[in-house]
């Protein structure tokens, strides 16, 4: 059970990156939304909201998942993350995750020495000042060998291979997107469209494919006016 929970918990590793203003443009809708499917069945949503406040970019990540077998919940996952970026670097991060009853917390703050991380799972350490996080909307992440995992509060090592452009089905229609295969501490495929917007994600959990379908942004996903 612990191994299964950890595998599902890896969802958070595959579920969370934030942008720095110098790297990519904020979506016009100020939000991204994905319908999450397991073996073709809907199990929840993953949304990101973006707020520009002066020189700062605030990114709010919200993930809600529930896996059912014969209408009975067998796994639940909830993740909240608030990141603040300034001049292309992470200023602060605060996340809380409920992984099927197990809680994880991560706090991070920029200092002169680097990014000071406090993690309920990994303890205290200093990460590189320019590190990105595991939220994936920023295509710059596909050029990095390390990211900060926002669930467990640890640095993950990655190997990334660009697979080329292909047609990707989303709930907003078919788009042309570049596919990247990620291995190392994470194992997944991720897509970015021609505008550099995160457009899809796929990985295996408990032997079943989990897929992210980009969906239209509704009023619940968009930031408050």
Notes on the structure:
- This protein is mainly beta.
- Helix content is 5%, strand content 60%.
- The chain has a 14-stranded antiparallel β-sheet, with helices on one face.
- The N and C termini lie far apart (43 Å).
Quick take:
This protein is mainly β.
Secondary-structure-derived class: mainly beta
Task: Bin the helical content.
Answer: under 10%
Strand content: over 45%
Helical stretch tally:
1
Q: Order of strands across the biggest sheet?
A: 8-7-6-5-4-3-2-1-14-13-12-11-10-9
Question: How large, in whole angstroms, is the Cα Rg?
Answer: 16 Å
Query: Using DSSP, what is the number of strands?
Result: 14
- SSE succession: HEEEEEEEEEEEEEE
Q: How many strands, what sense, and barrel or not for the largest sheet? A: 14 strands, antiparallel
Give the uncertain stretches in residue-range form. Answer: 15-23
Features of this protein?
225 residues; 14-stranded antiparallel beta sheet; 14 strands; mainly beta; 1 helix
């Amino acid at each position: 059970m612990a191994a299964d929970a950890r595998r599902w918990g890896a969802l958070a590793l595959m579920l969370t990156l934030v942008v720095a203003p110098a790297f990519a443009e904020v979506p016009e809708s100020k939000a991204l939304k994905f319908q999450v499917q397991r073996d073709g069945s809907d199990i929840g949503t993953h949304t990101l909201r973006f707020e520009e406040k002066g020189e700062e970019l605030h990114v709010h990540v919200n993930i809600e998942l529930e896996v059912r077998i014969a209408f009975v919940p067998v796994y639940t996952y909830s993740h909240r993350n608030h990141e603040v970026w300034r001049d292309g670097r992470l200023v602060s991060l605060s996340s809380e995750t409920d992984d099927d009853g197990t809680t994880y917390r991560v706090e991070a703050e920029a200092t002169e020495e680097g990014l000071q991380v406090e993690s309920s799972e990994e303890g205290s350490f200093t990460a590189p000042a320019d590190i990105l996080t595991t939220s994936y909307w920023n295509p710059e992440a596909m050029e990095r060998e390390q990211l900060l995992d926002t669930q467990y509060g640890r640095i993950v090592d990655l190997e990334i291979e660009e697979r080329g452009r292909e047609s990707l089905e989303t709930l907003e229609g078919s788009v042309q997107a570049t596919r990247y295969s990620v291995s190392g501490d994470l194992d997944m495929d991720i897509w970015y469209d021609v505008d550099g917007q995160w457009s899809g994600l796929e990985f295996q959990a408990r032997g079943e494919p989990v897929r992210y379908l980009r969906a239209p942004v509704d009023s619940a996903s968009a930031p408050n006016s």
